[in-house]
């Protein structure tokens, strides 16, 4: 499918998807992208699927501006890093094969103007058929709120300039996206602009839901100190100490 030319308000967005045996969900995911009015390229990095994932990708080659590769990788964040390297757009967005774009994604896409600004909205998480939406994943994120708990990856459209400076740290098998956001939210050279619109539906039973990233949990305070400064580090250190005294968890689970 021929790529549209960049025009004001219609700048190319690279949507990057990492897949592995994702045939059960992939068709609905790609269909939700095809329904958008934004100028989009789709980059799929597949880890060597043996189900019908590749056959589904081939059926969408003429419906989307789609490119894909399939072969071994070192995990989902390695696949996403590889996808970023292939991106031609000035903006980058990450989607899981079991996630869906909502119509408002194109509404947020129309707001993309400043290539040193991270734009984000809300996602619509769900737990299987329960329809539960945890409020911690929605709304505006300050540094302090992000330090307490991670935001939903599928709510954010990054300028490609973010990835000229940062990449996903492959040491963090589950929460490399959270680690990257700590870096980005701590970087004053990037503005962060929130729009209260819901742009995606995110499957909370997916990859990160059941993962236990012990190394990230060990490193989280130091990531905050290095990227967000000593004052926030001390505040969060006190928060952790207070929680331990009270026998509580929460802020440090992820």
From TrEMBL:
Residues 14-138 form the Glycosyltransferase 2-like domain. GO terms for molecular function: hexosyltransferase activity. CDD domains: GT_2_WfgS_like. Keywords: Transferase. Gene3D superfamilies: Spore Coat Polysaccharide Biosynthesis Protein SpsA, Chain A. PANTHER family: GLYCOSYLTRANSFERASE (PTHR22916), UDP-GLCNAC:BETAGAL BETA-1,3-N-ACETYLGLUCOSAMINYLTRANSFERASE-LIKE PROTEIN 1 (PTHR22916:SF3). This is Glycosyltransferase involved in cell wall bisynthesis. It comes from Chitinophaga rupis.
């Amino acid at each position: 499918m021929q790529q549209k030319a960049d025009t004001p308000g219609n700048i190319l967005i690279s949507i990057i998807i990492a897949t592995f045996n994702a045939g059960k969900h992939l068709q609905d995911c790609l269909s939700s992208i095809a329904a958008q009015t934004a100028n989009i390229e789709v980059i799929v990095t597949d880890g060597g699927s043996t189900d019908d994932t590749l056959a589904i990708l081939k059926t969408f080659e003429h419906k989307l501006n789609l490119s894909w590769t399939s072969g071994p990788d070192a995990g989902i964040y390695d696949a996403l890093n590889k996808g970023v390297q292939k991106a031609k757009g000035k903006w980058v967005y990450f989607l899981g094969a079991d996630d869906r774009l909502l119509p408002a994604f194109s509404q947020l896409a129309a707001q993309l103007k400043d290539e040193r600004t991270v734009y984000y909205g809300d996602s619509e998480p769900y737990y299987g058929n329960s329809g539960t939406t945890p409020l911690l994943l929605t709304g505006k994120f300050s540094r302090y709120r992000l330090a307490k708990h991670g935001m939903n990856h599928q709510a954010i459209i990054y300028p490609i300039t973010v990835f000229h400076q940062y990449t996903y740290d492959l040491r963090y098998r589950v929460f490399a996206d959270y680690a990257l956001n700590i870096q980005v939210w701590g970087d004053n050279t990037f503005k962060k602009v929130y729009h209260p619109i819901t742009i995606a539906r995110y499957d909370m039973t997916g990859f990160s839901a059941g993962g236990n990233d012990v190394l990230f949990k060990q490193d989280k305070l130091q990531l905050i100190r290095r990227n967000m400064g000593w004052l926030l580090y001390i505040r969060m250190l006190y928060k952790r100490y207070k929680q331990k005294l009270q026998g509580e968890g929460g802020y440090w689970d992820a």
